[in-house]
Design brief:
The structure is a single chain. With 113 residues, the chain is an alpha/beta fold. Helix content is 39%, strand content 26%. The chain has four helices and seven strands, in the order βββαββαβαβα. α1 packs parallel to α2.
Amino acid sequence: MKLSTRTEGQLQIISVMEDRIDAAVARAFKEAMRDLVEHAPPVVILDLGQVSFIDSSGLGAVVATLKLLPPGSKLSLAGLTPAVDRVFRLTRMDSVFSLFPTMDAAMAGCATA
């Protein structure tokens, strides 16, 4: 599972560098995210701009990431492709995560939150 991370002020941005988060990679995704968010700042933005497919295992891995964050930290999702956005909305996960159409929107929205 290829991920990249950078910190900008109080924001940690983690970009998924794969086109799928599915059953085949969900475990590796969770393990990689565990290491990245162990000492996360108050806001983590997960950039899903390159992800074109997510299944229930992938969705579960993203939810597991939320539970790995330090207390008081928030996980927002950015750059969702239409198919990935549809999965989050159909499963009502848009009530759990803040969804942003672009990284710029996420950074602006999270910086003011």
